[in-house]
Amino acid sequence: MPAPLDTTHGLPEKARFVLERNDEYVSGYREELGPNALRAMSSRDWRPDEVLDLHGHRVRGLEQELAREFRSFARRGLRRVLLIHGKGLHSTGGMGVLAQAVVDALTDGDAARFVRALKTAAPRLGGSGALAVELEIIRRHSR
Fold it and tell me: Strand, helix or coil at 75?
């Protein structure tokens, strides 16, 4: 039986992010990578390897769910993910809380170790209702 793959080798236990945000836009990158980590995401050619639709999800348990999903993405060798969180238009008071919770989970939760950079998706991919995420390259070593 082959040895299990270590999909976290070389990843920091706690990543620090530089974030810029306003009401309609967010971007962020892992501090040690610098702002160039966002460059690929600005291309019109950026396409996700996977789309994860979070409509209907609640903030409670979201951080753990995203950590599980991102661990799975890493194991599968995915590099680009589009997270659809919605704009919150159907939320109480018309204010969504999921978008903020997703950013917090990806920059301060267990999923953060898999994230290189993130930013509000291009309009063609959902704009302020979605988040484009670049994942860390995982070096696969057997144990």
Answer: helix
53/82 Cα distance (integer angstroms):
8
Phi-psi region of 6 (alpha: psi -120 to 50; beta: other; left: phi over 0): beta
pTM for the model stands at 0.84
Query: Phi, psi (5° rounding) for residue 84?
Result: -100, 110
Q: Are strands 5-6 and 80-84 parallel, antiparallel or unpaired?
A: unpaired
Contact 18, 116 (CB under 8 A): no
Give 94-132 pLDDT, tens digit per residue.
446 889 999 999 999 999 999 999 999 999 999 999 999
H helix runs in 23-114, sequence order: 62-75, 98-108
DSSP H helical ranges for 1-143: 62-75, 98-108
**What is the pairing mode between strands 80-84 and 50-53?**
parallel
State how far the Cα of 29 lies from the Cα of 54, in Å rounded to an integer. 22
* Amino acid identity at 18: V
Taken as a whole, the chain contains a residue count of: 143
Domain ranges of the chain: 15-136
**Class at the top of the CATH hierarchy for domain 15-136:** alpha beta
